[in-house]
Amino acid sequence: MTQAINALDADSFLYVSDLVHKRSAIVLEPVKGYLVESRLTPLARQHGFGTLQQMVSELRARSPGDLHHKVVEAMTTNETSFFRDIHPFETLKTEVLPKLIANRGSQRALNIWCGACSSGQEPYTIGMVIREYFPALATWNVKLVASDLSSQVLAQARQGLYSQAEVNRGLPASLLVKHFQKSGMQWQVKDNVRKLVQFMELNLIERWPPLPQMDVIFLRNVLIYFSTETKKSILDNVGKLLATDGFLFLGGAETTLNLDDSFERVNFAKTVCYRLRGK
Fold this sequence. Notes:
Structural class: alpha/beta
Strand order of the largest sheet: 6-2-1-7-8
Number of strands: 10
Largest sheet: 5 strands, parallel
Shape: globular
């Protein structure tokens, strides 16, 4: 039986999974072969390779460089959308931000970080929540930092340009009209929200650049890709960065339980958050 043009043999899959793990700590199990092939096929075509096997052979022959980086980026671009899973943003609006605003009245400053922000929908969602429901924060020093290890998705995020399909996913029509403007066939986030967000390149498994103490950290649907030891290391760094009365949002399938006992779980209606224990 002839192997499909975009199929990888076991040895080539192992090479790709090792490359991705070394650069990002993401674990690719053999059952994810279909995902590797679907994400790398467009990259192979873009660089003129007839098959994925040819591209992997070229990767093996070259010193680490741009193509290796693009392979890792292709495998670490994760699913995202505006107001994804809605409940965390409702909790941010009704519980978390009101508490922090009350606590920060004298400093009039607020720091929020979105780790692994992908193409920017999550930080722009937070920006819309701030602009829509907390107009008083316009006079505060609000830092909304969004990071990802992929320079490619960060370039899109900084532009704030999204297709019709992307804005149709989770974004209420009223907020689309209010906070976006048409740009050709796409929609662009307006400056009053876009300028709230500072994007930066950051690899969670490498040394983190200096960051201010954070009042809110969104690190949703990221830890699920890592080994237990990597999860522990990342949560240790998060604990050092989070304010003593700050809030950590993880994905619905993620927890700090049995990973880092410095955090405790806090339940808000349909959302679970984490705070530093004893605070």
